[in-house]
Amino acid sequence: MGEALPPPGEAVDVLMDRVGEPFTTRLLSDRRGSRAWKVQGPKGAVALKANSPDDETSRDKAAEMAQEDDHLVRLTDAGALNPDYRVDAGSWEGGRWLAVRWVDGAPMWQAFALARGPEGDRPSVRPWLLGVARTWAERLARMHAAGWAHADVQPTNALITNDGCAAVIDYALACGPNDGPRLPYRGALTHTTAPEIADAILATTPDTHIQAEAPADVWGLGATLFWCWTGHRPVSYEDGTPREDKLKAIGKAATLPLDDIRPWPFPQFEDVIRACLAASPEHRPSSADLAALLGES
């Protein structure tokens, strides 16, 4: 599979010094107009992604990749992101490519598999769950303190490392201060979209940019924890429901009763989720307050 869809040669030429030789490339994903590879050598590994030139959405994905690179530079300059995260970026004959530091971690849905079942009700799992929530809140707090929102808080954008920490990835849709020309933000994954973002999407034209704010990230964090722990999305609708109707349901801010679908009782974790999913943005804790509260656990 990796040989059939090799990474851009222009990117590989740049990254050889970073990872060393001999190196290997492994295709990780090929969907929605972009591809991602792991490039690994004796000096280390990076995650490389590029737009798919043969995909009809490739032009938007190339622009999105350039936008993410701009965000990474600005977030690093603002002290909201570790300087070693962004590796390099550039153009290739098919569009744009971006390389970031490789994170050894499990996708959040996979990492929460044990916690989703009754066998997860054990002393070792409880502090682990709180630690994942705390470290994710800490990562968001750094962005929020600099005036940024991640704007795409969802299960696929957190990798859980072996020490139980959440590593946040994918900053393409982030919303920052003094943004120049950019792709209009129209929400991200529907299931973790905050009610105020859902309402704004429904009330504006498709080319209108919606500036996501920190409380929307907090709602997304609560929705993600809810979903990955219970196995249910926080707002009820059928998979085949049109996105507009899903957004209308989310805008009502009526989430499923956590007591009815939790895999096992964990009042402290449930309180965190409920606080994040408060209907009004002003009633949600800040990410910094949430991190501090969880740090006292």
In short:
This protein has 297 residues and is an alpha+beta fold. It is built from ten helices and eight strands. It has helices at 9-19, 58-77, 108-111, 125-145, 195-203, 214-230, 243-251, 258-261, 267-276, 287-295, and strands spanning 24-31, 34-41, 44-51, 86-92, 95-101, 106-107, 158-160, 166-168.
What does it look like?
- The structure is a single chain.
- With about 300 residues, the chain is of the alpha+beta class.
- The protein folds into two domains: about 15-100, Phosphorylase Kinase, domain 1, CATH 3.30.200; about 105-295, Transferase(Phosphotransferase) domain 1 (Transferase(Phosphotransferase), domain 1), CATH 1.10.510.10.
- The chain is about 40% helix and about 15% strand.
- It has ten helices and eight strands.
- The protein has a five-stranded antiparallel β-sheet, with helices on both faces. A three-stranded antiparallel β-sheet has the order 6-7-8.
- Strand 1 (about 25-30) and strand 2 form a beta hairpin.
- Helix 4 (about 125-145) packs antiparallel against helix 6 (about 215-230), helix 4 (about 125-145) runs antiparallel to helix 10 and helix 5 crosses helix 7 (about 245-250).
